[in-house]
Amino acid sequence: MTITVTYTSPDNVVQDFxxxxxxxxxxxxxxxxxxxxxxxxxxxxxxxxGKDLLNGGEGDDRLYGGDGNxxxxxxxxxxxxxxxxxxxxLTDTLGGNNILNGGEGSDTLSAGAGNDRLYGGxxxxxxxxxxxxxxxxxxxDxxxxxxxxxDDSLSGDSGSDSLLGGDGNxxxSGGSEPxxxxxxxxDDSLTGGSGSDSLxxxxxxxxxxxxxxxxxxxxxxxxxxxxxxxNDDLYIHTVGSGVDLIYEIDGIDKLQFTGVAYADIEFxxxxxxxDIYISSRADFADNxxxxxxxxxxxxxxxxxxxxxxxxxxxxxLFNPMNVQITHSL
Length: 329
Known about the structure:
2% of the residues lie in helices and 38% in strands. It is mainly β. The protein has 3 domains: 1-92, no CATH class; 113-224, no CATH class; 232-329, no CATH class. The strands form 2 sheets. It has an 18-stranded mixed β-sheet. A hairpin with a 6-residue loop joins strand 29 and strand 30 (276-280). It is elongated, with a radius of gyration of 26 Å.
């Protein structure tokens, strides 16, 4: 049995149903700043107008903030939190597989140890997945997404978004505007999409796809796959970070090495392939080639396709790529 309780008073309502023995449908139609706490069962709580504090308590609850800048706390159970209008705070960190919808306004969404789904809605939102395998979608406007622990899926959608995968093997997709993607730890997959994006793989063996505009790709630590794809891209490789493979298509592209002077960068051909390998003189000297950049299909055509046109060392001054093969692998 579900009992419906409706409040219409303009005053601030404070009501706690923690000790109740059944589930409740709690509705506030007033304009006050209400504090409503659900039972140990599956409750539905609607805040209405005002700056409300809603707590689902135990059970699988549904919370609706309504108008105003509200705070929603799911409590235990598998909960659904809807911020609705206003700049809301949605928190469900006590476990369960939860759904958090920011709605309109610039909202802050924080989940916990379950496999949660977070949707920012309109406004400049902040989403934190916490532990577990989470799905985060910024939706419209300029959002900040942090996957936290676990193998998460992050999508910025429209707007200029900032995505951090955190620990785990994460999938990050920027969307339609210039975005910043950081995979964090783990073997991550990053896709910039439309817009001039900045992609950083972090730790692990990552795969980066720049997309259709002029992007910046930095694999970070690990042996990474870098696909700049179309337009004029910038690749960054730090000495000591592993071996990166670059798959370029067209455009006027640049490669910068950090941690080594331009004069100490050398080239090698690769037997049986159209690729070239670029690394520091020190990497070639120890006869163990484990730190550099391999440009795939560099010699496949005589056109500018698949090539990198400019090269720089740690000083950041770019020079036309003048390939002088001094090693063979």
